């Protein structure tokens, strides 16, 4: 592995750094998991799009620059280094878009990618249901073909839909063949949330923000072109989307390197307790190890290898690293942490959700055992 960046890559880094330093909002935006904060974040993301920095690795016709994965990693590093706002467009840009590039028709790419990059259409993820979380193949929401209307009728309920109350669109899995084996009878749909028969009900998270929604479908008609990939083959499309969530795109190393640097600053500001020095050092080393591991993964992708079940290893690593970084910060801040530093306290609460969302870490460990290590199921 060659860890030196080319002159062109360094020039790209300089461009990103100067634009971000000049444009990142001076004071933190309100939480993107509130209606007001979501709108403020979208305004920021539209400025990013104006600078052609919203989706650097996408082709130019969809608002990108055709940047390499290395350049994308450089952008991410610079983004988190300056403390830029969280990306409320992430479910579309980081999760759905890679699947649209892989499975979408040309018409679907033309229809959805540019508004997604520009932040004029925003996407939420409709997997979980009241009785289907870890056991995703157990979903009950139905898609029934309506020949007369020339489309599909959707019915059922999704839950835990992040920012569902604020988004314009949902991508999700529906059972299209109730007689097929569980994983086979599912279809992946792209649904406008203003379609007739859809009710979206936002609800609060542990921290009080309206970050979640329940989405109800009551005989909602969607057109044939709302199907991503093949009818009844939604499971493999969904697994590609989940691979992006667990693996490369959702949590780039820049995020953890920046948190580790903030942790070192916090430790110094609070008297550099020598009893915590080893743990702070370990946190920095782990963030750097994650960066190296990601560079290795990108090298494999650049050679044409497909990301596979090892995305589960990545997910376990970044989610547990995030918990360790924040737990340490809370210990440094002491018993008054929650009042002393809202950013760390909120970050800590959210870090605790990392081992749950994107598929729980228990499930990831099952995947690693069976599909990476080849251990028997029982
Ligand atoms: C912050 C956050 C954001 C989320 N955003 C979204 C979203 O946008 N869209 C969406 O669709 N969902 C979302 N989710 C839901 C998330 O995908 C589910 O919470 C997750 O898949 C677990 O499902 P569950 O909550 O039903 O738990 P369950 O599946 O009921 O699991 C309960 C516990 O049992 C364990 N368990 C279950 N089965 C096994 C097994 N076979 N082996 C070992 N242990 C097992 C689990 O690991 C867990 O600890 C979000 C969740 C969180 C926390």
Can you describe this structure?
Helix 3 runs parallel beside helix 7 and helix 7 runs parallel beside helix 9. This protein has 378 residues and is α+β, with helices and mostly antiparallel strands. Strand 6 and strand 7 (212-223) form a beta hairpin. The chain has twelve helices and eight strands. The longest helix is centred in the C-terminal third of the chain and has 26 residues, at 277-302. The strands form two sheets. Strands 1-4-5-8 form a four-stranded mixed beta sheet. The model has no long low-confidence stretch (mean pLDDT 94). Helices cover 48% and strands 13% of the residues. The structure holds flavin-adenine dinucleotide. Flavin-adenine dinucleotide (FAD) is lined by residues 124-128, 133-134, 160-162, 353, 356-357, 359-360, 362-363, 366.
Question: What's the main sheet like?
Answer: 4 strands, mixed
Beta percentage is 5-15%
Q: So what's the oligomer here?
A: single chain
Helical percentage: 40-55%
Shape verdict: globular
**Secondary-structure element pattern, one letter each:** HHHHHEEEEEEEEHHHHHHH
Radius of gyration: 21 Å
Overall pLDDT score: 94
Content-based structural category: alpha+beta
Task: Kindly report the spatial arrangement of strands forming the biggest sheet.
Answer: 1-4-5-8
Could you tell me how far the N terminus lies from the C terminus, measured between alpha carbons in angstroms? 38 Å
Q: Which small molecules are bound?
A: flavin-adenine dinucleotide
Helix count, per DSSP?
12
Poorly predicted runs: none
Number of strands: 8
